Amino acid sequence: MSAIITRRMLARGIGRIAAVTLLGAVLVSCGDEKAPQAEGRPVGVVTVEAGQFSDDVQLSGEIQAKKDVSLAFRIGGRVLERPVNVGDQVKAGQVIARLDPALEQNALAAAKAALEAARGEVSTARSTFERQERLMAQGFTTRPRYDQARRAQETAQATLENAEAQVELAQDRLGFTALRTDVAGVVTARRIEPGEVIQPGQVVVQIARDDSRDAVFNVPAAVLDTHLSDARIRVALADAPAVTAYGSVREVAPQADPVTRTFAVRVGLQDPPEAMRLGSTVVGTIELTTAAIVSIPASALTQQGRSPAVWVVDPAKSTVSLRDIDVLRFDAGTIILSQGLAPGEIIVSAGAQALHPGQRVRLLPGQLPSSRQQAAVSP
């Protein structure tokens, strides 16, 4: 009886040992397999790209002639006529105004009479000198008389030359009584009226030349501090914005206006349309462009301590790391950086609030990344 009980207990022990051995073998085989990696956190990503930041400044101005010519008489006198008015189109060589020529005509007549008298004196003095020269050769005259005749001839010749110059001067002054323009353009101002007695150099009319036009703006000093000379300026009529022309800065006033404290800037227009007449009000758009900069979406911005930062994706490991950045300025939905990121780097633009350094990431469902972004966020 006892032998039978002993054999049953031994069989139960052997079964338990086999079960334990089998369980251990199963556990050992399971331990040889690698545990599955954790799935990356879904995020949105963007590739950092360098660009140029542009800002437009609009100013009001007017169309002016590139060159204005002020015409004046070289001599004084009474204005006889002024056949042109403001707005008239004039051609080169056209008469703008005339002075009363009576005085100059009388001066010319007197100069011509003096010229004829000088010619007579020269003829007489030459004959006298030739006679004294013959007598001197024969010994029938004295040296003082010979020298006197020679000096008289020289004096008469000088008087003749002076009379000829006076005639030319009188003819020029008579020609100066007619004021002609040597350029084509439009009369923009008149300063005298017929019947007035004017002085030499007094402006009669002002003409805007037809060869080119400028757009003139009053620019604040803050805008001058930028690279204004390199800017491309778009000029449009205030009452017809579709009429446009482009130009560049041609001249900047060296001194500010004492009232407005602005600087007059002249923009040379390239092939302006006919609708941009002199005096037209225009709006100039100055397209200011900075050097190469980096901009990122505002959603990518996070914080590390008190410094702004972004999550940068490692393309090889699909992990993220936190990096400090320097912000140049904030725009609507965009952040302009001064430094901290390089073009070509990949950053997290969505889902950055719950990340930690070294965490694996994957692409958000529905996002269509570039090939570089797809490689960076593959699980």
UniProtKB/TrEMBL annotation:
Please list the coiled coil stretches.
146-173
Q: Which domain of life is it from?
A: Bacteria
Pfam families reported for this sequence: Beta-barrel_RND_2 (PF25954), BSH_CzcB (PF25973)
Q: Where is the CusB-like beta-barrel domain?
A: 218-282
Provide this UniProt record's keywords sorted from A to Z: Coiled coil
Keyword Acetylation part of the UniProt annotation: no
Q: Which PROSITE patterns match?
A: PROKAR_LIPOPROTEIN
Show where the CzcB-like barrel-sandwich hybrid domain sits.
71-208
Concerning its family, UniProt says:
Belongs to the membrane fusion protein (MFP) (TC 8.A.1) family.
List the NCBIfam families.
RND_mfp
Name of the protein in question: RND family efflux transporter, MFP subunit
Species this chain originates from? Bosea robiniae
